[in-house]
């Protein structure tokens, strides 16, 4: 089982760092799944995470100049690692002017991701900073816990408002309440609501647009049959929503959410080279 | 100085005004000696045959409060007068500002004994001198919350900085998982849970010899000290654009950072972690300072690790994790030496105020000897030596 990768392009490095920062804001620990073509950051919906789950996927070719991966076995050519994304975020933070960043899976004293940053210096040789990030290797028999979640059979799918606006609204609401209701309909209208004993606040968004979903097992037809005005809502932990929005440092190309009435909200954020899905369960 | 202690010691001497501070656990001491030439006027007062030059200490916050906003001070203050009035028990700070405005601050002070850490730069086997910028750039890779860092020497003359990781089990970077060499493995009754990667990340930085202005180091030497006080000095050095010199010796002996200027002499003395074992062992078994200079090819074989997890057999890893045992330091002084001290506060062999598992020796603070001795004593006779027979 081996893994080595290298980034030399500063723009790629900066983009990769931003992705890691986003993940670090969402969860304390997460699973990194390595395949020949892709990297996945996964958080499964355990109770410890408050039931939220994460699936973030990116193509290694868009970031790494070199990428070599040998999985646990020939027929299972993948590696699953558990790690603390904050560590990786910190390691990359001071690497933004690096000549090269190499990441390697090692096992000197314990399995680690060794991030070696080669920095420019005025002396004849470069400065090298290494960060050994301890990781846990997930054995093959547990890989089933981390399968890609399927898109739920949603009631409403709607594009999100400008994330910056949504973020500032949610941050202020967070001061007033622990829970937020997200409701939307198929006419491009979304409300964010909080309600406490003393105050209730609702922010209305209009003309957001509803994404068309390709027909799959007749999903499209059932959506067409739905009333455009009927509203789907879910009450979720406001902190989870705030973390998701706070972690977005760049505007995604596409941002939408799928709401299953009173069950779960499924966020999909797409950038050019990376897709992020985040599921927040509704509070009963 | 405020990064080190809560009290500012002012000591006028024949060779200038010395400002000093010490931290509560006596493991950090700093002194700034401003030569008479630094001032427009410098009158240390006169010491009589029976009296010494007056010295005192004030609350750091009170003193700093007078100089609160540097940018506005620079614009409005023409002169600053510092006056010690022993009989009125006041330290007077008078700011002469524009438009005829004079601000006078009267600070209460306490008389005090001379604050002097005992250390000897000449006895340090190793010395490094670098522009402050280089060290500041090095330190930026370590998180602000990090407590201790280990400075070491490596092959090829390289200098390393590495965050020091404590571990109760005495091993660094150990994850719950397959046992290491020599321990028989019994298969767990339940499916193997993924090991928790909650161990601390280890960051290591290598600097080439030519980044330093001068390097004189004993090979294989290393010391571990607190980053917090060092960062304070580093930002001062960067702001004043002065090169920083690091004098160090064996683990356990203090590390001394100095800045030198025509009118200013700065010393920061920090206690270092004593590591009794590494003194006797050959350095190559101590994982800290002897990681090879980074190369592309080092062991990254996890096959055996995976095999152990999958098949529940004993694993055949490489060498066991290096242990970094921390022994209880030998008593810092003998009874006789303790009696000689005239400290304001009681000081015992252990370091008060620090957590029990941190084995930093407290710095040694000598008693007052002759009055009027200039600055930090580099050549004064050491009254109270360590009782472990070093000389």
Automatic annotation (TrEMBL), chain A:
It is found in: Cytoplasm, Cytosol; Nucleus. Keywords: Cytoplasm, DNA damage, Nucleus. GO terms for biological process: double-strand break repair via homologous recombination; meiotic DNA integrity checkpoint signaling; mitotic DNA replication checkpoint signaling; mitotic intra-S DNA damage checkpoint signaling; nucleotide-excision repair; response to radiation; telomere maintenance. Gene3D superfamilies: 3.70.10.10. PANTHER family: CHECKPOINT PROTEIN, MITOTIC AND DNA DAMAGE CHECKPOINT PROTEIN HUS1. Component of the toroidal 9-1-1 (RAD9-RAD1-HUS1) complex, composed of RAD9A, RAD1 and HUS1. The 9-1-1 complex associates with LIG1, POLB, FEN1, RAD17, HDAC1, RPA1 and RPA2. The 9-1-1 complex associates with the RAD17-RFC complex. HUS1 interacts with POLB, HDAC1, FEN1, PCNA and RAD9B. HUS1 does not interact with RAD17. Interacts with DNAJC7. This is Checkpoint protein HUS1. The lineage of its organism: Eukaryota, Metazoa, Chordata, Craniata, Vertebrata. The gene is Hus1.
Automatic annotation (TrEMBL), chain B:
Residues 275-391 are annotated as: Disordered. It is found in: Nucleus. One of its GO terms (cellular component) is checkpoint clamp complex. Its EC number is 3.1.11.2. GO terms for biological process: cellular response to ionizing radiation; DNA repair; DNA replication checkpoint signaling; mitotic intra-S DNA damage checkpoint signaling. It holds the Pfam family Rad9. Residues 338-349 have a biased composition (Acidic residues). Its main location: nucleus. Residues 275-288 have a biased composition (Polar residues). Keywords: DNA damage, Exonuclease, Hydrolase, Nuclease, Nucleus, Phosphoprotein. GO terms for molecular function: double-stranded DNA 3'-5' DNA exonuclease activity. It catalyses: Exonucleolytic cleavage in the 3'- to 5'-direction to yield nucleoside 5'-phosphates. Belongs to the rad9 family. Component of the 9-1-1 cell-cycle checkpoint response complex that plays a major role in DNA repair. The 9-1-1 complex is recruited to DNA lesion upon damage by the RAD17-replication factor C (RFC) clamp loader complex. Acts then as a sliding clamp platform on DNA for several proteins involved in long-patch base excision repair (LP-BER). This is Cell cycle checkpoint control protein RAD9A. It comes from Vidua chalybeata. The gene is Rad9a.
